[in-house]
Amino acid sequence: MGWSPFRKTGLTYHMPSASVKRSATSLRATPIGDEGAGTTTIESKTNFFGPGVAGTTITAECLPLHRGRRTQTWQTSIRSPDGKLLAQVTQTQMVLTAGA
Length: 100
What we know:
Blueprint: H1 15-28, E1 38-48, E2 59-67, E3 71-79, E4 85-96
């Protein structure tokens, strides 16, 4: 039997939520005005409010709280198909400049 993110009850472990928030933040966290720069996570906090259910689609919305030249802070809301908040993530990224 292979690995599955779902328990026998059909509810997820936290790993799928962690993957969703990391993907959402990495897609949104882009350095301002520095082509070729990147970001790395320096702090991340997740509050879990409910489980995802096997066979359903969860959604993530990632919004900026702060977009500075050296750091950025993002908040990701992960929701069930009916809009229930499953997890709230606040993540701070350090901007890595190209060639530094």
